[in-house]
């Protein structure tokens, strides 16, 4: 797939004009489970138009994660993230993408009270962002809500294992499933959420054998993050994967050094400004003859 670029004269920024293509659908994602020779699903986070433009040709799913609280807003956790934030960033990512299915996280406090509350929040997200689906954390306790939304036409991606919105109850971000009791509970959470109608389930921060067991137990795609290479797909926070931060979680592989590249470029710019080398003749306007 390729994307051609035109220049929007109103903004002087390159705006992608896509060649004809079909966006990845929820049924297509669901059908990847069990397809002979099917490639793993590629999923990354996106929070802005430009990031979505760059990631879209290479991803099956773009996740507008509530991780934007830490990545974009510098918050200490995902807990303060609001529905307004998720809708604004979800709409931006939808505008910047033409191929990948866009999934938007349900923020903490927007769905836990009742299925009806969850439907109202999810309906707002879908209407304001143009996303294909929402994602919500939780296992058995959220099964009724997953079914309620799914039955009413809102596709739901589940999320079990290490659930960041429950970090206070979990006592931190350590890997889950090390005890037999927790191992069995997380498998039960995953199976219950899938049976309730989730079209895919993210499994985060669990021991590898547990992730493998969940892959075997579910008939919907399992997307891993800090889980197992046997998962039906993988997701990472894009800024972690690109090396934007000095510290990244153990399960992240850095595929770039964005922080280093930005630092080098800014140092070069600062030096040229102070030396009055920039702007040069190429960057200033001359009177018309």
- Please state the overall shape, judged from the principal axes of the Cα atoms: globular
| Strand numbers in spatial order across the main sheet | 3-4-5-6-7-8-9-10
What is the tally of helical segments?
11
Order of helices and strands: EEHEHEHHEHEHEHHEHEEHH
Largest sheet, strands/sense/barrel: 8 strands, parallel, barrel
Characterise this structure.
- By secondary structure, the chain is an alpha/beta fold.
- The protein has one domain (21-261): Phosphoenolpyruvate-binding domains (TIM Barrel).
- It is 37% helix and 17% strand.
- The protein has eleven helices and ten strands.
- Strands 3-4-5-6-7-8-9-10 form an eight-stranded parallel beta barrel, surrounded by five helices.
- Helix 2 packs across helix 4 (83-96), helix 4 runs parallel beside helix 5 (115-129) and helix 5 (115-129) crosses helix 6.
- The longest helix has 17 residues, at 180-196.
């Amino acid at each position: 797939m390729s994307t051609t670029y035109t220049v929007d004269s109103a903004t002087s920024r390159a705006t992608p004009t896509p060649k004809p293509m079909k966006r990845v659908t929820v049924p297509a994602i669901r059908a990847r489970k069990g397809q002979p020779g099917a490639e793993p699903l590629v999923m990354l986070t996106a929070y802005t138009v430009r990031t979505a433009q760059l990631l879209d040709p290479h991803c099956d799913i773009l996740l507008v994660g509530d991780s934007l609280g830490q990545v974009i807003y510098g918050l200490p956790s995902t807990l303060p993230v609001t529905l307004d934030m998720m809708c604004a960033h979800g709409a931006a990512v939808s505008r910047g993408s033409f191929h990948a299915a866009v999934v938007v996280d349900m923020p903490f406090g927007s769905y836990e009270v009742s299925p009806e509350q969850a439907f109202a929040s999810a309906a707002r997200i879908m209407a304001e962002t143009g996303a294909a689906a929402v994602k919500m954390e939780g296992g058995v306790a959220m099964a009724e809500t997953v079914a309620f939304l799914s039955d009413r036409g809102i596709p739901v991606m589940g999320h079990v294992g290490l659930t960041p919105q429950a970090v206070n109850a979990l006592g931190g971000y350590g890997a889950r499933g090390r005890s037999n009791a927790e191992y069995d509970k997380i498998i039960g959470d995953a199976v219950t959420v899938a049976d309730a109608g989730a079209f895919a389930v993210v499994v985060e921060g669990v021991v590898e054998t547990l992730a493998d067991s969940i892959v075997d137990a579910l008939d919907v795609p399992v997307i891993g993050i800090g889980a197992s290479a046997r998962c039906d797909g993988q997701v990472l926070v894009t800024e972690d994967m690109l090396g934007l931060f000095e510290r990244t979680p153990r399960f992240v592989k850095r595929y770039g050094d964005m922080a280093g590249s930005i630092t080098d470029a800014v140092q070069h710019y600062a030096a040229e400004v102070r030396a009055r080398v920039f702007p040069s003749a190429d960057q200033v306007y001359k009177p018309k003859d």
